[in-house]
């Protein structure tokens, strides 16, 4: 039984350790440990209660300044007129009440780390001064004429989207880019469900009264929504440790504590606090709408009676309802315009309109026509945010969850399947592959019941995609055939409910799966067709990116480096132009493969890692981890850095096994064995190649099988075991025709060489 990895971390809070094994969490830890030793600014993004301060402390602990102070400030908790003096300090007499000179946090932190928590709340007037500190490494205390040097590191944290605040003019764009040299996306608890049992055990261990949770209780806690994330979970365990009647917590013992979250009677102060949590900027208007609606409900829609209940005149009610209707018309107009922008791939422009639409509708969410508008707005906002920020964007995931909650009982099966497609993408990109397959199968069932062709296409694509990453390419091809998605032509158009080019995806995964199973002619045809589709002028920009990605990916597998260089550069360019961060990263990784083929290994590594770490990882890159690791290992091996290649691949193989991302497992094992061979460990290399060969056979991966057989046969020839090498190659090449791939041709050439050598020996 595998143990949950715990990375010790000295910190006085109850969250004194980094605990988790979920892909999203493990990716976060890897990113922290890579960027911590640098001195660059870091921006930490994540929902409230997810542990952003703890992440900042780990960055500090891993830095070269770990022995210097760690100082934090909540930018939203200090009165605006005091923030400047708090940060920069002040001299005596600088303002009324400044009776003595006082050091600010920039001076107090010295060479340590300064955490600016809730950076989105920093007053706009102070943002240029913070920008100056980042640019010049100097600052000036309030009332002083002399500059002081800042030698520390700035880490900023926020639960808000700073880019959207910048678009709305509430945060400086140049400051955002100065802060976001590295971005750490802290996953919410909904992305770390598999970590909940370990977190519960950790929190419970911190209390003197030891608790034991039954399996049913753990399941219930894993299924429970946690809007307050880890902080809320920790608080619940604290309550149980004090108030639970027994130290054994089963589902019955848990029920009152979970119910109390909803059923607790509230005081006037608590009621006011709850009203302050209403969505929308104008809390007073939202509270007024809530009261008007409730009064009308209680009086059966009688406006005069509702006015009496509220203590106002009837005209007040009528004015409020008329104003609300005008707001709804404005919301419909925003939604219609956002539809047009999404259809035109202008996702970033659609986001402010959709947020304004939702904000307008928040106060009246119980009306069916309003819920319908909210459903559409959340769906489009999720689509837009993912297109701009990538598959793992927390707010996009929350939008799909909100749409699904609203849609149940309101929308038909086709529309629910559309939202499930968005939820499936999160499961896929966080490598919850079993959950992703279950969701895709449920989508397929719903789509078959509804008979909607778009929903059917999306469900088949979702299932095909998941099966491919699980390493089951034969079933992936069968799924495409069942969905009539095989053999997509140059001008075939199948656009999904969220604007995704399903035809391009179908052709991509047909080509990849065909390559995996050894149907190389079919795979090459798919590559050519994708390249032709990508060459068509005009069309949907996102569809263009999908076709370019598929064509470039296949070109890399076929070692068609001339085509790869052109396609990867074009993919990177169109992604930068339209803000497709994830596809920009894919383009860089693939361009790195092309640059490596030219022998420029240092440049290739820099391009590849920048694309993966700074663009793919934060926007859905977990899915490409094994492919990137394989190509990076090949690069290091060709550069003569076999020891680095072996060490990197050993860690990558362990990670890939944990994630069940099996499609490139054979290739990883082959490259690792070759690195061992290059280091002179022939015994380990032979064992590794045999493991790779058996793995490739089990997964049905023909390219990996051919590669493993070729290198094993060469190793056997070096060891004087020519007959064994010939037998190994003949079995691997039995079903292949000449000219299918360069690597297969190399294997056939080796077979001829070995056969000739055997004749000479005989």
Automatic annotation (TrEMBL):
UniProt-recorded Gene Ontology molecular function terms: ATP binding; sequence-specific DNA binding
CDD domains linked: AAA
Record-annotated Sigma-54 factor interaction domain positions: 18-242
Keyword Lipoprotein among UniProt keywords: no
One GO BP annotation of this record: regulation of DNA-templated transcription
Alphabetically ordered keywords of this record: ATP-binding, DNA-binding, Nucleotide-binding, Transcription, Transcription regulation
Keyword NAD: no
Listed name of the protein: Fis family transcriptional regulator
């Amino acid at each position: 039984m595998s143990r949950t990895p715990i990375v010790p971390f000295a910190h006085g809070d109850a969250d004194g350790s980094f605990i988790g094994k979920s892909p999203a969490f493990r990716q976060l830890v890897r990113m922290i440990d890579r960027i911590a030793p640098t001195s660059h600014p870091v921006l930490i993004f994540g929902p409230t209660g997810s542990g952003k301060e703890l992440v900042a402390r780990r960055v500090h602990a891993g830095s070269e300044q770990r022995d210097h102070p760690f100082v934090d400030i909540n930018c939203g908790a200090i009165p605006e007129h005091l923030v400047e003096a708090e940060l920069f300090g002040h001299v005596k007499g600088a303002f009324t009440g400044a009776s003595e000179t006082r050091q600010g946090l920039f001076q107090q932190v010295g060479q340590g780390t300064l955490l600016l928590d809730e950076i989105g709340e920093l007053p706009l007037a102070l943002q240029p001064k913070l920008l100056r500190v980042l640019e010049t490494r100097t600052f000036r205390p309030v009332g002083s004429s002399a500059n002081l040097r800042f030698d520390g590191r700035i880490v900023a944290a926020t639960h808000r989207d700073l880019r959207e605040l910048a678009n709305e003019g509430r945060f400086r764009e140049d400051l955002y880019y100065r802060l976001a040299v590295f971005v750490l996306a802290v996953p919410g608890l909904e992305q770390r469900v598999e970590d909940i049992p370990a977190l519960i055990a950790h929190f419970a261990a911190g209390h003197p009264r030891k608790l034991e949770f039954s399996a049913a209780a753990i399941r219930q806690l894993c299924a429970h929504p946690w809007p307050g994330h880890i902080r809320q979970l920790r608080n619940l365990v604290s309550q149980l440790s004090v108030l639970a009647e027994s130290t054994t917590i089963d589902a019955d013992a848990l029920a009152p504590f979970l119910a109390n979250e909803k059923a607790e009677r509230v005081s006037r102060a608590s009621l006011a606090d709850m009203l302050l949590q209403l969505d929308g900027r104008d809390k007073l208007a939202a509270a007024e709408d809530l009261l008007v609606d409730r009064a009308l409900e209680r009086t059966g829609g009688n406006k005069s009676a509702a006015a009496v209940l509220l203590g106002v005149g009837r005209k007040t009610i009528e004015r409020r309802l008329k104003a609300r209707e005008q707001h709804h018309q404005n919301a419909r107009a925003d939604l219609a315009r956002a539809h047009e922008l999404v259809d035109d791939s202008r996702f970033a422009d659609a986001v402010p309109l959709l947020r304004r639409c939702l904000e307008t509708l928040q106060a009246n969410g119980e009306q069916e026509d309003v819920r319908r508008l909210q459903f559409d707005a959340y769906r489009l906002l999720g689509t837009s945010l993912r297109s701009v920020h990538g598959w793992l964007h927390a707010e996009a995931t929350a939008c799909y969850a909100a749409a699904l909650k609203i849609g149940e009982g309101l929308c038909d099966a086709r529309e629910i399947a559309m939202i499930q497609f968005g939820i499936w993408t999160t499961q896929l990109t966080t490598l919850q592959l079993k959950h992703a397959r279950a969701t895709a199968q449920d989508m397929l069932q719903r789509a078959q019941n509804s008979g909607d062709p778009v929903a059917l296409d999306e469900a088949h694509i979702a299932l095909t995609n998941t099966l491919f990453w699980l390493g089951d390419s034969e079933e992936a091809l069968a799924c495409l055939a069942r969905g009539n998605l095989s053999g997509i032509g140059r001008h075939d158009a199948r656009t999904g409910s969220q604007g995704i080019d399903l035809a391009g995806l179908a052709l991509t995964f047909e080509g990849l799966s065909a390559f995996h199973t050894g149907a190389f002619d079919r795979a090459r045809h798919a590559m050519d067709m994708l390249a032709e589709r990508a060459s068509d002028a005009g069309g949907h920009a996102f569809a263009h990116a999908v076709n370019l990605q598929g064509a470039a990916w296949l070109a890399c597998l076929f070692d068609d480096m001339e085509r790869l260089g052109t396609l990867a550069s074009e993919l990177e360019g169109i992604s930068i132009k339209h803000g497709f961060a994830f596809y920009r990263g894919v383009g860089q990784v693939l361009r790195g493969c092309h640059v490596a083929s030219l022998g420029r290994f240092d440049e290739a590594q820099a391009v590849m890692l920048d694309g993966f770490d700074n663009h793919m990882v934060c926007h859905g890159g977990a899915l490409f981890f094994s492919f990137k690791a394989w190509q990076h290992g090949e690069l290091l091996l060709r550069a003569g850095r076999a020891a680095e290649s072996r060490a990197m691949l050993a860690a990558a193989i362990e990670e890939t096994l944990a994630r069940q991302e099996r499609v490139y497992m054979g290739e990883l094992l082959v490259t690792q064995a070759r690195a061992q061979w290059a280091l002179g460990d022939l015994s380990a290399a032979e064992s590794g190649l045999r493991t790779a060969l058996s793995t490739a056979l089990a997964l049905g991966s023909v390219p990996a099988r051919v590669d493993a057989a070729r290198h094993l046969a060469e190793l056997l020839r070096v060891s004087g075991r020519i007959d064994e090498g010939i037998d190994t190659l003949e079995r691997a090449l039995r079903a292949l025709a000449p000219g299918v791939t360069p690597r297969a041709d190399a294997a056939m050439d080796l077979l001829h060489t070995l056969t000739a050598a055997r004749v000479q020996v005989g």
